[in-house]
Amino acid sequence: MDRFSWSNGLLEINETLVIQQRGVRLYDGDDKAKLDVGVALLSTHRLIWRDGKNHDCCMAMPLSQIIFFEEQAAGIGKSAKIVIHLHPSPVNKEPGPYQNSKYSFIKLSFKEHGQIEFYRRLTEEITQKRWENTPVSQPISTGTGPQTGRTRAVGIVGIERKIEEKRKETDKNISEAFEDLSKLMVKAKEMVELSRSIASKIKDKQGDITEDETIRFKSYLLSMGIANPVTRETHGSGTHYHMQLAKQLGDMLQAPLEERGGMMALTEVYCLVNRARGMELLSPEDLLNACKMFESLKLPLRLRVFDSGVMVVQLQSHSEEEMIASALDNVTEKGSLTAEEFAKLLGLSVLLSKERLLLAEKMGHLCRDDSVEGLRFYPNSF
Amino acid sequence: MHRRGVGAGAIAKKKLAEAKYKERGTVLAEDQIVQMSKQLETFKSNLEEFASKHKQEIRKNPQFRVQFQEMCATIGVDPLASGKGFWSEMLGVGDFYYELGVQIIEVCLALKHRNGGLITLDELHQRVLRGRGKYAQDVSQDDLVRAIKKLKVMGNGFGMIPVGGSYLVQSVPAELNMDHTVVLQLAENKGYVTVSEIKGSLKWEKERACHVLDHLLKEGLAWLDSQAAGEAQYWLPALFSELTSRDVTPEEANQMTP
């Protein structure tokens, strides 16, 4: 920690911010630094750290100080860390929080995550060494003066060897995983090709496929994640899974829909349903495919797509005429309404109240006043 | 004379067709479906074995996730298509990305009133991490990008606009064409843009610049500062970085000089 110098944290000209991450605690070697949790900032030239509460407490170190760094995985009760091994300080280093340290390395502890991206960017910057190309107005001490050149702190060689061993071990694990994955992919590819052959035969009507076989085929595609090629679309045949889902949704969404004026955006439904499930979540496509079956299963819900592309689930009982009539009534009563005002009035989301107003406009009951102040709707007297 | 029953005739016809096909070496679709069903069972057990050995790798290693996704894409398989898919069920990739999708939607919704539905990938990443809490798995920006791609099918206008080396994530169905995108990219440097800058950098006529800026204002993506020294500045809240603006607590606000 004695490699840091006090800094005002302002970037120099030619110095760019690469990434910043909150919730970072510094370690002097293996010991927690006598500092609170703060923000770590990586620029093209420096590693900067600023106290989370006291912004005046800010320190920086040139990236050229860094010999190498490695990740330390999170453990039970321990956050993930990046361990950074450093060159000795140059003689002319500006004062910082620590006068001396017995350690030649620091750690960044990521208490609020973000270590993956930080590590990735740090790797990029150390590789590219952009600080060498774009000198900054105020010379930032480079950390490698003539005296410090080849001097290495004791123990670094041992550390490097450990790192190399660990890297080899990790590489071995990864390559085994990749090998197994590649074999798996070969088999998966065979099935993709088989499914394409089947699909084209169904299309060309070679052979006699029953409805049941088609449904089974679709479920195989679903299991493998193969996009449904053009098959004979028999009315109402999704997979059994989607039919089940549709029925579940029919039960589950009644109350929430009533509460929200009979209509919910599909993304709202997605969040609601998945939050409730907790595990074995639905994919966006699962939800969409299930909702498409509402009508054919004669459930009291409908999937509806507005002109803007917005998709909603609405209660069948809430008819179009009712919605338009209510929109017209509200606008007439207030003289004019924006989507935001209408939303507040009905307790709907702004997105959906806007769609209702647009619908009423489309049917000729409302007309718009479109200006930079916003979109306002008036009853149509034309 | 015997009249053959319709049933018998149909069966005979089918048998004839089958024979003809087999002669030509063409396999019937229904036979292939049976074949696929068998292969599927084998594949499922292979995948189970893979999962028992390497499931952790996918969970812990974002690089591996990227490679996995790319391999799937190459062979034409979407491991995230359905929660009921083998990949999702056995490797657990589904829940990881679908939950991320929920978190992304919630962050975008919470900030929409401020940035009009446009947010930098960096800020989205930070806020999602904060929302996930200390004990959750870390996520990379690549993970976010893949989750967002899946959200598109739900029609809420999710999209990504390349800007300055990263992306702006759009979460509302606002129409943004090339002109709008290019102005957003121009504004990325300082967080705002003026008509003169647009005319100077992009060589547009004043009307075209104003038209684009008006649209951004209307959609709530830009704020107008007409009191700026010189000419009016159009600020994009999506581009406000934490360095230049931070959320002020009520106590801090009271202490600030008017």
Describe the protein.
The complex is a heterodimer of chains A (382) and B (258). Chain A has 382 residues and is an alpha+beta fold. Chain A folds into 4 domains: 5-130, Roll (PH-domain like), CATH 2.30.29.30; 189-202 and 209-229, no CATH class; 239-315, Arc Repressor Mutant, subunit A, CATH 1.10.10.10; 320-379, Arc Repressor Mutant, subunit A (Orthogonal Bundle), CATH 1.10.10. Chain A has helices at residues 115-128, 130-133, 156-204, 211-224, 240-252, 254-259, 266-277, 284-291, 320-334, 339-346, 350-362; strands at 5-6, 17-28, 31-32, 38-43, 46-51, 58-62, 66-72, 80-86, 105-110, 263-265, 301-305, 311-315, 337-338, 366-371, 374-379. In chain A, strands 1, 2, 3, 4, 5, 6, 7, 8 and 9 form a 9-stranded antiparallel beta sheet that branches. In chain A, strands 10-12-11 form a 3-stranded antiparallel beta sheet. Chain A is flat. By secondary structure, chain B is mostly helical. Chain B has 2 domains: 48-173, Arc Repressor Mutant, subunit A, CATH 1.10.10.10; 174-245, Winged helix-like DNA-binding domain superfamily/Winged helix DNA-binding domain (Arc Repressor Mutant, subunit A). In chain B, a hairpin with a 2-residue loop joins strand 2 and strand 3 (166-171). The model of chain B has no long low-confidence stretch (mean pLDDT 82). Classes of the chains: A alpha+beta (382), B mainly alpha (258). At the A-B interface, strand 2, helix 1, helix 3, helix 4 and helix 7 of A face helix 2, helix 3, helix 4, helix 5 and helix 6 of B.
Topology:
The complex is a heterodimer of chains A (382) and B (258).
Chain A: E1 5-6, E2 17-28, E3 31-32, E4 38-43, E5 46-51, E6 58-62, E7 66-72, E8 80-86, E9 105-110, H1 115-128, H2 130-133, H3 156-204, H4 211-224, H5 240-252, H6 254-259, E10 263-265, H7 266-277, H8 284-291, E11 301-305, E12 311-315, H9 320-334, E13 337-338, H10 339-346, H11 350-362, E14 366-371, E15 374-379
Antiparallel strand pairs in A: 1-6, 2-3, 2-4, 2-9, 4-5, 5-6, 7-8, 8-9, 10-12, 11-12, 13-15, 14-15
Chain B: H1 6-24, H2 29-60, H3 62-75, H4 86-91, H5 93-115, E1 118-120, H6 121-132, H7 141-151, E2 158-163, E3 166-171, H8 178-187, E4 192-193, H9 195-202, H10 206-218, E5 223-225, E6 233-235, H11 250-255
Antiparallel strand pairs in B: 1-3, 2-3, 4-6, 5-6
